[in-house]
UniProtKB/TrEMBL annotation:
Species this protein is from: Enterobacter cloacae
Name by which UniProt lists this protein: Sensor domain-containing diguanylate cyclase
Amino acid sequence: MKEQRREIINDSMQALHALAKLMPQLNAQCSPVEMLETINSALGANLSWVSVESADGPRVVCAGDVTCHAFNVADFLA
């Protein structure tokens, strides 16, 4: 169980590093749709992003499959 949990944390860290590398491409002139398409294509994801209004305020919900693996992120960061 500890091994699986550590791998999930490591995958999350790699995804964050990949997103940090994407930041120059994500700017104020991009629409939210363009930003999400950039993130999806860079991470090899097939995700749907929806803004949901709730009593606590608006939030973004994501659904779909991330086909990105650790080796894909490593190649992207190289």
